[in-house]
Write a sequence for this structure.
């Protein structure tokens, strides 16, 4: 007996028309990816690297290596723009040549005709997500490390400057035993270098009638005791309403605090250098530290890691709907110009909503997804107009 083969549903099987339309999209898509990547790469990094080579003596080989490492980051920006331009050019050419009219004459709707474009846009959405979450954070970090190393600057550990970590919890009143929630500990280190905090100051407000200030030249996390080990410092304690002060110097002092300061110091400064998992971990740390403003900003950035790839689907719908209008014909230069204008409008909309999300006017999810929803609605209107 022969083995039964599992076939996909009929509606998922591409027809000859689907394959032909996808083939028509490939050329413009590759052209647009190359065009937008070259332009954005030149403006975004190439001119800066040339300046570094001339003024700072950056070796040309290192500059080329950094350029290659920064390339995925600019490809991520180019994919949505290229999807718009490719669908617009391909469908407007087919419409101008009356090939779409021929398809309509055999009973195919405009929605069915643009379906291959949406499939390609969906594929580009997935590709953009993978690039943005898996490849770009690593290559951007490697590019920064290579640049600093080549220029003789400190690397990776420099991101640990001015480390601030705060912990909120219950503050106990020794007199009546009652407690209230508030700032319990505030940790500051001037620098984090090779696992060691330098120039440390810790303010302890865990007891309502006592304020303790600890200053140390160095501090390291003692894994065995799960405590901070401070060295060469001084502890000042202020007690009571009159603030009676006592102080003591120490060579070595163990202090109870989580390793949160180290995790905060190791966070990349920019969410663009984080994967989705790292960004969620960073958000948790910021919430634990009571930094609501930064946590809210990061929640917006996390949502944008999903909405940035979705721009491919948005632009695929808008581009194919515009191009599928009866007798529409757009040259490459016109297509480039229309694409730039639409992209500009979309990103202005995105930045505006993003700012409202960071400020707290809108929830992070609403701020990140509103531009996508509005643009998809606009694309649906264009598709309806093209169907008439």
């Amino acid at each position: 007996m022969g083995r039964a083969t599992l076939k996909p549903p009929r509606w998922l099987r591409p027809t000859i028309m689907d394959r032909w339309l996808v083939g028509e999209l490939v050329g413009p898509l590759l052209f647009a990816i190359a065009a937008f990547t070259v332009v954005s790469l030149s403006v975004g990094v190439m001119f800066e690297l040339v300046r570094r080579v001339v003024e700072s003596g950056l070796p040309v080989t290192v500059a080329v290596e950094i350029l290659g490492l920064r390339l995925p980051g600019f490809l991520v920006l180019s994919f949505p723009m290229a999807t718009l331009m490719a669908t617009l050019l391909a469908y407007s050419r087919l419409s101008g040549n009356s090939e779409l009219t021929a398809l309509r004459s055999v009973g195919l709707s405009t929605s069915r005709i643009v379906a291959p474009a949406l499939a390609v846009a969906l594929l580009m959405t997935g590709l953009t997500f993978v690039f943005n979450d898996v490849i770009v954070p690593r290559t951007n970090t490697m590019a920064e490390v290579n640049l600093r190393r080549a220029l003789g600057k400190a690397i990776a550990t420099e991101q640990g400057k001015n480390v601030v970590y705060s912990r909120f919890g219950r503050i106990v009143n020794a007199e009546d035993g009652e407690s209230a929630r508030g700032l319990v500990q505030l940790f500051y280190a001037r620098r984090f270098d090779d696992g060691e905090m330098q120039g440390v100051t810790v303010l302890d407000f865990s007891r309502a009638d006592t304020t303790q200030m600890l200053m140390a030249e160095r501090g390291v996390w003692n894994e065995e005791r799960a405590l901070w080990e401070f060295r060469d410092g001084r502890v000042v304690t202020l007690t009571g309403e009159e603030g009676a002060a006592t102080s003591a110097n120490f060579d070595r002092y163990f202090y109870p605090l989580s390793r949160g300061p180290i995790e905060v110091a190791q966070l990349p400064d920019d969410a663009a250098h984080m994967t989705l998992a790292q960004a969620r971990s960073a958000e948790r740390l910021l919430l634990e530290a009571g930094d609501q403003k930064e946590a809210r900003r990061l929640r917006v950035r996390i949502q944008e890691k999903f909405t940035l790839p979705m721009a491919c689907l948005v632009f695929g719908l808008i581009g194919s709907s515009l191009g599928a209008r009866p007798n529409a014909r757009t040259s490459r230069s016109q297509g480039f110009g229309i694409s730039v204008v639409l992209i500009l409008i979309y990103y202005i909309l995105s930045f505006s909503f993003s700012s409202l999300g960071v400020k707290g006017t809108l929830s992070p999810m609403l701020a990140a997804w509103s531009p996508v929803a509005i643009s998809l609605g606009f694309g649906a209107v264009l598709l309806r107009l093209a169907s008439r």
